[in-house]
């Protein structure tokens, strides 16, 4: 039972569940359960892997009279430990940040609406506003909404700095923290599912007003329907973001899902590609719009970019898997 007790003790000291240890070792949870209950002994290669994973010698795992778990001649770098108070503060902040990020995203999506409506209104007979004035007012509104969105994103980024180590460095949670986070995750799961269903349905139905507007021979009505489509798409995105940010904060503390060490590396690569992609899409949209002055049709860049973005992310996953 020496090996069983030491594996169980080291796992609990790390704050890992049996599922997490199984994932790290590449075995089933049942295998870890048998090791810890003494029903089976790990193979020699698993003993070596366990010693490297926990930073202990094989003698420490196999012999009863070895009390020092440190590897000889090695001084492992200190690993930050997340306390229960820190975990609570982080989850509370991310709950607020989810709303702020959702609001910023919504402002980005609807930013073009004033430009669309003013441009369409300027083409109405007898309308007092000229096309140039409408374009200027629309651009001012677009930039104002974009500036407000950027302010929200920057504020969230600055407020999140004390917790940046969760993304950048190895960390452990103190005993009992993982259980409390899992309790909160279970309580939030129904809300998370409901928000994703609402968000998906809203985004799928968002083109309906646009399709309705295409059948009417009225430019302003078509522009209004396009604005309605953007409002629905933005609303759907908010549901995804508000639920997703909170769920991700819990997974980050538990180091599960996309926040395992391997997935973190993949995420950093995808974030870099994603940033470059959307900056390029924005540059293309603005360049095309200013060059042609066809703001009423250049919006097509965004749905096309959205579809192609999914393809780009799939290619990123493929490249990362080949590297692994």
Structural write-up:
The protein is mostly helical and 324 residues long. The chain has 15 helices and two strands. The protein has helices spanning 2-14, 18-25, 29-37, 44-54, 58-62, 84-110, 113-122, 131-159, 165-168, 177-205, 207-214, 219-254, 261-292, 295-298, 301-323; strands spanning 80-82, 171-173. It has a two-stranded parallel sheet with strand order 1-2. Helix 2 packs across helix 3 (29-37) and helix 11 runs antiparallel to helix 12. The longest helix is centred in the last third of the chain and has 36 residues, at 219-254. Mean pLDDT is 82; it is low at 70-76.
Structure, briefly:
With 324 residues, the protein is mostly helical. The chain has helices at residues 2-14, 18-25, 29-37, 44-54, 58-62, 84-110, 113-122, 131-159, 165-168, 177-205, 207-214, 219-254, 261-292, 295-298, 301-323, and strands at 80-82, 171-173.
SSE string = HHHHHEHHHHEHHHHHH
Overall helicity:
over 70%
Instruction: Please report which band the strand proportion falls in: under 5%, 5-15%, 15-25%, 25-35%, 35-45% or over 45%.
Output: under 5%
Number of helices: 15
Mean pLDDT: 82
Widest beta sheet: strand line-up: 1-2
Write down how many β-strands occur, each being a DSSP E stretch of 2 or more residues.
2
Which consecutive residue ranges, at least 5 long each, have pLDDT under 50? 70-76
What would you report as the Rg, rounded to the nearest angstrom? 26 Å
Per-chain topology:
Blueprint: H1 2-14, H2 18-25, H3 29-37, H4 44-54, H5 58-62, E1 80-82, H6 84-110, H7 113-122, H8 131-159, H9 165-168, E2 171-173, H10 177-205, H11 207-214, H12 219-254, H13 261-292, H14 295-298, H15 301-323
Parallel strand pairs: 1-2
């Amino acid at each position: 039972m020496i090996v069983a007790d030491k594996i169980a003790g080291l796992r609990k000291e790390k704050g890992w569940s049996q599922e997490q240890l199984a994932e790290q070792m590449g075995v089933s949870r049942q295998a870890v359960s048998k090791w810890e209950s003494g029903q089976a002994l790990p193979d020699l290669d698993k003993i070596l892997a366990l010693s490297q994973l926990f930073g202990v010698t094989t003698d420490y795992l196999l012999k009863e009279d070895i009390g020092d778990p440190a590897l000889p001649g090695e001084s492992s770098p200190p690993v930050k430990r997340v306390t229960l108070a820190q975990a609570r503060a982080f989850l509370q902040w991310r709950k607020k940040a989810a709303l702020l990020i959702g609001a910023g995203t919504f402002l980005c999506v609807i930013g073009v609406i004033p430009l669309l409506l003013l441009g369409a209104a300027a083409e109405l007979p007898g309308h007092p506003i000229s096309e140039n004035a409408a374009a200027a007012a629309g651009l001012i509104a677009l930039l104002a909404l974009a500036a407000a969105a950027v302010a929200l994103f920057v504020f969230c980024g600055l407020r999140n700095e004390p917790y940046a180590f969760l993304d950048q460095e190895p960390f452990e949670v103190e005993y009992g923290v993982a259980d409390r986070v899992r309790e909160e995750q279970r309580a939030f799961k129904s809300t998370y599912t409901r928000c994703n269903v609402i968000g998906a349905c809203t985004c799928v139905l968002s083109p309906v007003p646009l399709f309705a507007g295409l059948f009417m021979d009225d430019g302003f009505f078509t522009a209004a329907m396009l604005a309605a489509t953007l409002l629905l798409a933005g609303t759907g995105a908010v549901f995804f973001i508000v639920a997703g940010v909170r769920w991700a904060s819990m997974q980050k503390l538990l180091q599960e899902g996309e926040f395992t060490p391997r997935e973190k590396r993949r995420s950093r690569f995808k974030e870099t590609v994603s940033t470059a992609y959307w900056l390029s899409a924005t540059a293309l949209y603005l360049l095309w719009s200013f060059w042609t002055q066809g703001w009423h049709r250049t919006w097509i860049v965004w749905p096309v970019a959205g579809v192609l973005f999914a393809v780009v992310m799939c290619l990123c996953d493929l490249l990362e898997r080949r590297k692994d």
